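Researcher: I've got a protein sequence and the SMILES for nicotinamide-adenine-dinucleotide. Could you write out the 3D structure of the bound complex as structure tokens? I'd like something to compare against our soaking experiments later this week.
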Amino acid sequence: MNILVTGGAGYIGSVATEELTKAGHAAVVYDNLVYGHREAVHATAVFEEGDLADKDLLDRLFSAHAIDAVMHFAAHSIIPVSMRDPIPFVRDNVTNAMNLMEVMANHEVKRFILSSTANVYGDPERVPIEENDRLAPSSPYGESKLMIERMLHWCEVRYGLRYASLRYFNAAGASENHGEDHDPETHLIPLVLKVALGLKDRLDIYGDDYPTRDGTCVRDYIHVVDLAQAHVLALEALDESSCVYNLGNGQGFTVQEVVAAARAVTAQPIPAQIAPRRSGDPATLVAGSDKIRRELGWKPRHPDLRDIIESAWRWTQAHPTGYPTGYAR
Ligand SMILES: NC(=O)c1ccc[n+]([C@@H]2O[C@H](COP(=O)([O-])OP(=O)(O)OC[C@H]3O[C@@H](n4cnc5c(N)ncnc54)[C@H](O)[C@@H]3O)[C@@H](O)[C@H]2O)c1
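Model: Sure. Here is the predicted complex with nicotinamide-adenine-dinucleotide in place.
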């Protein structure tokens, strides 16, 4: 199939493009490079630089490349920014997704895969979290993804769109070719590795008074290659029906445990200090991912936290300052 990968110059989109091409699909990456990097676009993909606000360009692109399916990674996704300035953040995420769905409807393209998030559950009533649990986003970021999920349902009703909403927990690690390079970086593992490399003095741990094993937040880390492979499976299953899946390992680690694992992998001291809690951070987020395992036969190949950190460390050592070019911002 010809797959349009929005945000394919970003972290997860670049690895998904790599996995899609390994599975025999052709990828067209559409990205405005606001958070992404030209060098992150996988070598086998066609690259079209553009913004999702530009419906005319999208329309031309669908005609030029005979697109069969869309994987929609492009979004604003920094939670603290969404807490500070929710209106433009939510407006862009939702409007850009609507533009995409509208152009898809006009071109009768009926397969859509959404990068959704565990944030749609907010502070969960129980863990592991199942797909049918209460939806109560803890940030405007999560709210924007939930709005898109709900619109996908109405696009299915009206236009026969088939969709997979994949609710990621914490993507981490690297493939051989692609790793994580955000600015600002807000994700734990790349920040820890920046400290290990000496690019940052110390790590801030946001809160140590949560009701968890050691008081720091518990999160579920999923290897980015496992995450990308789930997209390929979900794409192939879309002919059957639309679906919503959690994507995580089903095992939670505290921030302190991640730091300890990173100290072991890197053999560096990684100084850390406790900082105030951030608003919108639930104490524990762990995925119940039985549904995708059962229905699509997905199984993470790299569930071990050390393996995940080792892959990120290899990539970080090979690219200590990230990809060669910065941002289009
Ligand atoms: N990284 C995680 O752990 C995680 C967890 C849950 C959900 N997600 C979701 O997964 C997706 C990918 O995450 P990521 O970490 O790879 O993000 P990223 O910022 O690395 O990649 C997003 C890409 O989208 C591009 N983009 C943004 N706005 C655009 C626009 N208007 N037009 C065209 N391109 C645009 C950026 O330039 C960037 O290359 C996001 O939607 C994010 O919300 C990520």
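Model: Residues 124 and 175 are 31 Å apart (CA to CA). The pocket of nicotinamide-adenine-dinucleotide is lined by residues 6-7, 9-13, 31-36, 51-53, 73-75, 77, 96, 115, 117, 168, 170-171, 182 (CB under 6 Å).
Researcher: Great, I'll pass this along to the crystallography team.
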